[in-house]
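name: query_chain
kind: protein
chains: 1
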Amino acid sequence: MMVPNLALARSRPCAGVRAARGDPPSSIVVLTTGPRRWAAERLAEDGFWVVPVEDREELLRAMASVVPDMVMLEVRAGADRDLGLLEAARRADPSGDVTMIVFSGADGALGGEARVAAFNHGADDVIPEWKVIAHDELLCRVRALLRRRGHGTVITAGPVEVDLRAREARLRGRPISLTPREFALLQRLAIAPRRVHRKDELLAEVWGWAREEANGTNTLEVHASRLRRKLSRDGDDLVITVRGVGYRLL
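structure:
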């Protein structure tokens, strides 16, 4: 019987790392204390939209403003304050749609009781010994959790529904024909309706452009105008331009 090469299997990159063409990148809020900063940098390189935060207040603010797909934070053995932050992050997500990954502190691995406590306080996955996990394994965990959590997700914003699994958008129950970019733009606006999304944010999230790459382009304006027209068939003005800043939905 052939024995698999485990070392090769560990080094093989995780399949399906990047978003499909036209899809916005998944957003991940990472508490970047200590050695976790490299993880934030590597996940950003792998195509995720990473929001680094450094303390409790920044994390909770980011959850309210970004509406992330995932949060990664540290829980140290015996640290009730860390468990309290995990619980607060879970309370800040009343829909339960945000995936929470917990990792051990720099002071050592998480034992069985600490791991159970993390799950009981809202964690979806626990990395018990952060120092030894390979980036490829972390990447596979992230992608697997996001893939499972995203199935069947429907975002509702007023009369608009965005079905992430079926890749369909509906206005008052009737389908809207959108291009992949228009769908990605609507998805990003719909996850935080009434919030003003800055132009540079949308160009980064939907097109993956850095700020310097976006200078002088009217791509966003063209797509927003087309999306507004398609959503106004019943006389609604749902895509609102905030002059000099960006766009909001509703």
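note: Residues 1-13, 15-23 have pLDDT under 50 and may be disordered.
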